[in-house]
Amino acid sequence: MEQYGYVRVSGKDQNLDRQIDAMLKAGVPRRRICTEKKSGKDFQRPTYQRLIKRLKPGDLLIIKSIDRLGRNYDEIIEQWRMLTKERGVDIRVLDMPLLDTTHAKDLLGTFIADLVLQVLSYCAHAERENIRQRQAEGIAAAKARGVRFGRERKELPPDFPELYAAWRQGEITGDEIAARCGMALGVLYRKLRELGIQVQAAPRPKG
Question: What 8-state DSSP symbol labels residue 33?
Fold first, then answer.
């Protein structure tokens, strides 16, 4: 039997050390700790896919908590079934001792482990959906209060009519009028189109 540890965080700025320390304490050799910085929304993760190809019957896969394996309820159940039933791999979840297929391999023990897995996986999935809902409700409430999201929309300056007239008469260049409006020339063109002004090639300045 060989032991492997799977360590995952969702973002590149998140730290793996806590999970790695837990793997080492559990007896996983450092060379067999597989780390990944990928979202747990599905199992199409390069490191995870390479890992499960290495696992052989009788090997032990250790994870810190069930949500490190993934966050999709149905897919977690399917991965657990595939690894333990089809591949003959044992799984140990450090934060939940009941989720340890190396113990109680009789029918009752297997039933309890599978039941606990389904409950925990559902809770992880439900919490993720609740977070999404709270975020959506927060954004909607903020918009109702007049909070604007995204880049601040640049407005044309009060003296734009004079600037535009000077530009059309060739007294200033397109780059100059854009600079005095505080925006790129392409943004200025887009704003003019929004105002229904057909923009042709910028006139050349006189002289």
Answer: E
Question: Which residue in 10, 39, 65, 121 is the catalytic one?
Answer: 10
pTM: 0.59
- 3-state SS record for 110-140: HHHHHHHHHHHHHHHHHHHHHHHHHHHHHHH
- Low-confidence stretches of the chain (pLDDT < 50) are none
Cβ proximity of 45 and 38 under 8 Å: yes
Separation CA 52–CA 33 (nearest Å): 13
Spatial separation of the C-alpha atoms in residues 119 and 117, rounded to whole Å: 5
Q: Give the per-residue pLDDT at 108.
A: 65
Two tokens, residue 154: 């640049």
121 tagged catalytic: no
Q: At what angle do helices 160-168 and 174-181 cross, to 10 degrees?
A: 170
Predicted pLDDT at 104: 65
> DSSP 3-state assignment of 34?
strand
Residue 99 burial by Cβ neighbours in a 10 Å radius (0-12, 13-18, 19+): buried
